Amino acid sequence: MTDRPRRFWLMKSEPSDYSLDDLERDGRTHWDGVRNFKARNLMKEMEIGDGVLFYHSMKRPPGIAGTARVCRTAYPDFTQFDPKAKYFDRRVKPDKPWWYMVDIEFVSRFPKEIPLPLLRKMPEIEGMALLKRGQRLSVQPVTEAEWNFLVALGQRGGDDTAS
DNA sequence: GCCAACGTTGGC
DNA sequence: GCCAACGTTGGC
To answer: pTM above 0.85?
Structure first.
């Protein structure tokens, strides 16, 4: 048993909807509401222990707030069946779910969020999916090199001049 | 199967 | 609020 994650991901959330602070308070949560096939397929690849960069979108500036860990592999997102739920999907038959979610648990909050404009200046993560033009996926794969760099950067408070 | 129209995402 | 990029829908 190692605490070293095997694979790495980035997951976006609007903090007004669900923030890293909320996750820290709750300890863990189910990641419901993903309604994009690519993002769903990526979640189905996740394994327990995988590392997650928690990204706050739709704020100024957006940024990476901290890290989480996958603690339950993909299972049907129950909100797709609930007519009163925000993410209800009328096309889905009860016996054939379309949408899945995973559970994640809180791991760490960076002293300061790493803002998107700073990420764009970092040659180490050039080519990162998040920085690609028109990138909208709410779940993205992250390489091990990107993970290592960003976690180290985040832990020292986004200070890109430190050694 | 093509593709125009429409809806959503999400940075700015 | 604007708008670019992308995904989805639906007519044909």
So the answer is: yes
